[in-house]
Structure formats: C-alpha cells, structure tokens
Amino acid sequence: MSIDSLALEQSVQRLFPNQGLDQVLVELLLERAKKNLVKYRTLDRQFQAKYGEGFEAWRPSVLDSEPPFQTEQDYFDWEMAVTGIADMQEEIERLQGLKQQL
C-alpha cells in the first residue's frame, strides 16, 4: 500500500501553511514529546501522592523487601514514568534544537 503523496502534501499545506515538510515533522514530533511528558509527569505525581514521597526515596523500600504484587507493579510503572520524563525532556531539547536549525 502506498500513500498518495499529493493528498498528503495538500493536507500539510492546509494544516501547516507556509511550512516545509521538515518543519512539519519536527513540529509534530515536538508536540508528541510534550504530550508524552505531560502523561509521565501526571503518573509521577499520582505515585508521589499515593506513596507520600518521590521515586528515588521510595525505591529502596521496594527493592529491599518482598512487596505485594500491586506495589511491585507500581514500582515498574513509576520507574517507567521517571525514565519517560527524562527521555522526553531530552527529546524535547533535541527537537527544539532541530527546530532552530530550520
């Protein structure tokens, strides 16, 4: 299956007037990275509220014990959120640098 390049180009011009494809791609990736950052930060705040401390302070109590299944699942989800925050911040910075080059 191939994509209709002309239709795609028309959509780009309608939604992002006066921008080239590189600019559009960077804008869309930046938007997605920011959306992901919000999602990961929200998850991080929810776990902080649930456990009353930040991940790094809470982590040893889980690693040094035999936590119940839900606590162990929270550990993995929270670790993913913390890692995701760092990854998205790095990605946003990189994309903003690319945007300035355009």
Question: Any descriptors?
Answer:
single chain, 102 residues, mainly alpha
Short account of what is shown:
It is built from four helices and no strands. The protein is an all-alpha fold.
Overview of this protein structure:
The relative contact order is 0.14. The chain contains four helices and no strands. The chain has one domain (18-101). The longest helix has 33 residues, at 69-101. It has helices spanning 5-15, 21-51, 55-63, 69-101. The chain starts with a helix and ends with a helix. Helix 2 packs antiparallel against helix 4 (69-101). It is mostly helical.
Helix content: over 70%
The largest pleated sheet is described as: none
Series of H and E elements: HHHH
Low-confidence segments, given as residue ranges, are: none
Q: Determine the structural class based on helices, strands and strand pairing.
A: mainly alpha
CA gyration radius, whole angstroms: 20 Å
Fold blueprint:
Elements: H1 5-15, H2 21-51, H3 55-63, H4 69-101
